[in-house]
Each structure stands twice: as C-alpha cells, then as structure tokens.
Amino acid sequence: MTDTIDYKQRMQSEMNALMQVAMKNMVKGLLEEVAETGLPGAHHFFVTFKTGHAGVDLAPWLKQKFPDEMTIVLQEWFDNLAIMSDRFTITLNFNNTPEPMVIPFDAITAFADPSADFGLRFDTMSAKPATPDASVDKAVKEIAKEGDVVSLDTFRKK
Predict the structure, then answer these.
(1) Which segments of the chain have a pLDDT < 70?
(2) 19-26 contacts: CB < 8 A, separation 24 or more?
C-alpha cells in the first residue's frame, strides 16, 4: 500500500469504464433497431466476441472451431435477433444450417460497420484492468479493411 492516492490514474480508469459501457449500450441500441426494422441500406455489422466468455452459447462444433474468439456478420441472412439487457440471441446460417447463438454484451471485443467506416474495440469486462490483445487488434484491422476503426487506445495517455 502506498501513502498517496493516484487520482489521475483513478479518473482515467473510471472514464475508460464509462466509455466502454456507453459504447456497448450504443451497440445494444443499434441491434435493437435492427431487430425491429432490419438493416438499412448497405449497412452490415461485424461483431467479434470471446467464445469462452461466461454465457456464450454456441453449437459445439463452432466452439471447437473457434475456441477463443469468433467474428459474426449480420448482413444478408440472419434470423431471430432478440435483445435482452445483458445479451443478444441470433440465428446465423453456416453451410446451409441455421445455428442459434447467445452472445453476452460483455463478451464483445469489437464491432464494425464497414459500410459506414465505423468500428469500435472493447476491453473485455473483468475485475482487473484490460491489457491490449493482439488477436483483437488483428481482428479489428481485418474487419475494417475498408475504413478506420476508432479505438480508445488512440486517446489514452501512455
């Protein structure tokens, strides 16, 4: 234990946590709109999430194929999109087989809409401060080949 309080570090940590919650709420709101009215125009979403996160429910073969992380695309064919307070459910088509999924919002590590040159990267929710994750950075770069990705790391003081 130190004999001083690092207010600057605490403020940065709190601001980061608030930003993460606000951005995930924005993603939740977007998914709610899409569940009600569908995707407008050429918009399509890439959602990357941790497959081993508590509450993620996938077919066993998908979990085996993607043991750490998976990116799904909401574009032409998806069904049963339903939004709950802490997660969403969706059915996607894999090799002409509908596969239902449950994805908690806390499992999401990246969100992108390449048609709008928009993307977000999230720290995974945990009790300890998140550290940069090379696989997430790689996934976000692949997702956003057509545009820029906004990352909180850009705005953090190092």
Answers:
(1) 1, 124-158
(2) 19/152, 20/122, 20/123, 20/125, 20/152, 23/120, 23/122, 24/105, 24/106, 24/108, 24/122
CATH number for the segment(s) 7-155: 2.30.30.220
Residues 6+ apart with CB under 8 A from 90: 72, 74, 78, 79, 80, 81, 82, 100, 101, 103
Residue 40 CB partners (closer than 8 Å, separation 6+): none
- Domain residues of the chain, as ranges? 7-155
pLDDT digits (tens, 9 = 90+) for 17-53: 888 899 999 999 999 999 999 988 889 999 999 999 9
